[in-house]
């Protein structure tokens, strides 16, 4: 059964939210690897409630089966995010992403500085720790999957809808895409809000450090959360994450 068929929430297939009269600010919100738009739905709805237009795509290979994900690539996901960006016709556009979605929106900021005016990152993924990176490159040649990476939550009452295994060929493709993001970090000059968990069992702290050290942005805010793990937009601190994101978008968007 496809993952999207396990829920009645139509937002799992991606969704848009628009206001009459087209507000000045629009926000693109991008989910993470093996996940669905439901993991960022609360984030997106808060942006919309604040008066912004919102676009939340379902990335290729997601919301169906892990096999489909393994047949998709970084280029596919970047293309899907870019198509969603093009659907926002607002004067000022904020891009927001969690985990792999963070890496994707950084790439959009690098490639489309005329359309991306600010960036919000939640536990952004632009690399793995050395041992895990070596395991991905090695095992990716002989195995198709390994255990799921989704679901790293401090709140035991919360569950996220995501694949129950990690497609390794797709993860290898993601790692290759990260090299481009890291190489071009200096091209990111937009205001950046980086939100991260103090304890994250999926993405190492070095990923956020790499982003902060590499970007050229002068307007940079980092907020560290003590009560959540990797799934920051679904975990204990999510209300604070949403409020901080809205404040940032209001400030930089005028």
Task: Give an overview in words.
With 254 residues, this protein is an alpha/beta fold. The chain contains eight helices and nine strands. The protein has helices spanning 41-49, 66-70, 74-87, 100-111, 130-139, 168-183, 205-214, 238-253; strands at residues 15-17, 25-30, 53-56, 92-98, 118-122, 145-147, 165-167, 192-197, 220-225. The strands form two sheets. It has a seven-stranded mixed β-sheet with strand order 1-3-2-4-5-8-9, with helices on both faces. It has a two-stranded antiparallel ribbon with strand order 6-7. Helix 1 links the parallel strand 2 (25-30) and strand 3. The termini are far apart.
Please indicate the percent range of residues in DSSP E strands (runs of 2 or more).
15-25%
Given as residue ranges, the uncertain stretches (5+ residues, pLDDT < 50) are none
Main sheet: which strands, in order across? 1-3-2-4-5-8-9
Through-space gap between termini = 45 Å
What's the total helix number? 8
What is the overall shape?
globular
Count of beta strands: 9
- The whole-angstrom Rg is 17 Å
**Fraction of residues in helix:** 25-40%
The arrangement of helices and strands along the chain is EEHEHHEHEHEEHEHEH
Mean pLDDT: 93
**Alpha-beta content class:** alpha/beta
* Largest sheet, strands/sense/barrel: 7 strands, mixed
């Amino acid at each position: 059964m496809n993952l999207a068929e396990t829920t009645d929430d139509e937002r799992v297939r991606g969704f848009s939210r628009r206001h009459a009269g087209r507000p000045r600010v629009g926000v693109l919100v991008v989910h993470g690897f093996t996940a669905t738009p439901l993991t960022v739905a609360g984030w997106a709805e808060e942006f919309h409630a604040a008066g912004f237009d919102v676009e939340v795509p379902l990335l290729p290979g997601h919301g169906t089966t892990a096999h489909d994900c393994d047949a998709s690539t970084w280029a596919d996901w970047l293309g899907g995010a870019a198509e969603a960006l093009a659907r926002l016709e607002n004067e000022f556009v904020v891009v927001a992403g969690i985990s792999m979605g963070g890496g994707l929106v950084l790439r959009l900021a690098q490639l489309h500085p005329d359309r991306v005016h600010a960036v919000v990152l939640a536990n952004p993924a632009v690399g793995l720790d050395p041992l895990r990176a070596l395991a991905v490159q090695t095992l990716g040649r002989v195995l198709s999957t390994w255990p799921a990476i989704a679901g790293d939550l401090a709140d035991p009452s919360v569950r996220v809808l995501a694949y129950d295994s990690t497609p390794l060929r797709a993860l290898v493709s993601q790692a290759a895409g990260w090299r481009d993001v890291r190489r071009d970090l200096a091209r990111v000059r937009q205001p950046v809000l980086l939100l991260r968990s103090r304890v994250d069992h999926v993405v190492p702290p070095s990923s956020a450090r790499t982003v902060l050290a590499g970007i050229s942005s002068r307007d940079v805010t980092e907020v560290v959360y003590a009560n959540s793990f990797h799934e920051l937009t679904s975990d204990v601190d999510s209300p604070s994450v949403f409020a901080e994101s809205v404040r940032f978008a209001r400030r930089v968007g005028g």
